[in-house]
Design a protein that fits this description.
- By secondary structure, this protein is an alpha/beta fold.
- The protein contains ten helices and six strands, in the order ααβαβαβααβαβαβαα.
- Strand 4, helix 7 and strand 5 (183-190) form a beta-alpha-beta unit.
- Helix 3 (73-85) crosses helix 7.
- It is globular.
Length: 269
């Protein structure tokens, strides 16, 4: 009986020891992984790690590549507004500009940077659908446009072709960007067929002039966008789809350059 009792007590002590060891390991794990804030805040090693973490975050947030998106005219300004509404202006290193001959359109723009063209030519009243007026206004403001694109590595010229300011001023804006040494990309739309042959002819002529002053160009035909929307879609929503296509073209290219990836692509590529 005594032997059985001693064996039982020995087994009980072993169980207690195992339980205490398990509790100790659990407490150690909890302290190591769940409560790191209990470490001394003035620890040199902790301070060094925090500084390295902050510098890494800053390096990821700041891009050495200067990219500017210039929305020229009503269509380009609408595309810039849509980019800002989607939050691209908050989480990217891209600088957005709204460029127009219409002061009322600039006042309604969401862009933090705005430039009015042709103070003496259009007097802030717009180009009236006349590309010659838009070109004259841009030529009058050539110096301001040159200052706007100065120091840029890459410039997107975004416009809806067929009107006055976009068709007339976009080639001049692209010329300024190329003169500043920036890689210039044109992202434009062609008007819907129901907008009339006059706007279609103006758009074709403006696209030809813009092609001479850009390194690459993306042309989106609005008529092709009708395949993406349902029949009976309101006109305003159809134009919003066109603006969103411009946004996707610009953001898709700029994000490849700015954001690191598994196969990284930098600006020099």
């Amino acid at each position: 009986f005594l032997k059985c009792t001693e064996a039982s007590m020995s087994a009980l002590r072993r169980c207690r020891a195992a339980a205490l060891l398990a509790c100790f390991l659990a407490a150690s794990t909890h302290c190591a992984y769940v409560q790191p804030h209990l470490l001394h805040k003035n620890s040199p090693r902790l301070a060094g790690a925090s500084a390295r973490a902050r510098s890494t975050v800053r390096a990821q947030a700041e891009s050495p590549c200067v990219i500017k998106v210039l929305g020229v005219g009503g269509g380009g300004g609408n595309a810039v507004n849509r980019m800002i509404q989607y939050g691209q202006a908050q989480d990217s290193a891209v600088e957005y500009w709204a460029v127009n001959t219409d002061i009322q359109a600039l006042d309604a723009s969401l862009s933090p940077n705005r430039l009015g063209l042709g103070a003496g030519t259009s007097r802030g009243l717009g180009a009236g659908g006349n590309p010659d007026m838009g070109m004259a206004a841009a030529e009058e403001s050539f110096e301001q446009l040159s200052q706007m694109v100065a120091g840029s590595d890459m410039v997107f010229v975004v416009a809806g072709m067929g009107g006055g300011t976009g068709s007339g001023a976009a080639p001049i804006v692209a010329e300024c960007a190329q003169s500043a040494g920036a890689l210039t990309v044109g992202v434009v739309t062609k008007p819907f067929s129901f907008e009339g042959m006059r706007r279609t002819r103006q758009a074709d002529s403006a696209i030809g002039k813009l092609a001479e002053n850009v390194d690459a160009m993306i042309v989106v035909s609005n008529d092709r966008l009708l395949d993406l929307v349902e029949e009976g879609t309101p006109l305003q929503e159809a134009f919003c789809v066109a603006d969103d296509i411009l946004r996707q073209g610009v953001v898709g290219i700029s994000d490849i350059i700015i954001k690191p990836g598994l196969i990284n692509v930098d600006f020099a590529d």
